[in-house]
Amino acid sequence: MLPTRSLIAGALMALAAGAASAQTPAAAAAPAAMPAPAAAPAPVAAPPVVAAGDVVDTLKASGQFTLFLKATDATNLTGFLKANKVETVFAPSDAAFAALPAGELARLMAPANRAELQKLLIYHMINASVPSSEFKGAQRQARTMAGLPVELDGGEMLMVNDAMIVQADIMATNGVIHVINKVLSPATAPAPTAN
User: Fold this and answer.
1) pTM of the entire structure?
2) Strand partners, 43
3) pLDDT (tens digit, 9 = 90+) per residue, 10-58?
4) CA neighbours within 13 Å on the CB side: how many for 188?
5) CATH of 55-130+165-184 among 3.30.365.10, 1.10.10.10, 3.40.50.300, 2.30.180.10
């Protein structure tokens, strides 16, 4: 009887060991490789602006200045920009307008604020041709059509006030366009200098 009990005990231990090993799946011994996270898409750079006639036609052809042109239409400045013979326009892209504080663009576009919007727009315009060669490697001011100056910085990175000129010297038939990455504010115009 003793050998039978030993055999039964041995069989039960073997079954228990087999059941224990069956509960530990082979996959748990080696963790599965996690898939690599997908890389974030690189930001798409806006295509360069190419001269296509006068200042207004060039901005329209680009397709990147719909908000600026909507604002010039609302303030009756589009015809003025087309008729003006020589001008410089610091043109904020649609992305620059989108970066305004929430609700600011809608506030400016409201009919009650057209005078403020017009002043803001003409602060982006100079009644003369100012290519970047006139301020490259230097700092100078230029008087805008709003009667307030802008600070032109021709250092390592071309700037107007605190906006970066992302594309300079687009030579339209009636002026120069400099594409900027920020909407300029007449409220933060620099103090005029003697020169």
Assistant:
1) 0.76
2) none
3) 443 443 444 444 444 444 444 445 444 444 444 456 789 999 999 999 9
4) 10
5) 2.30.180.10
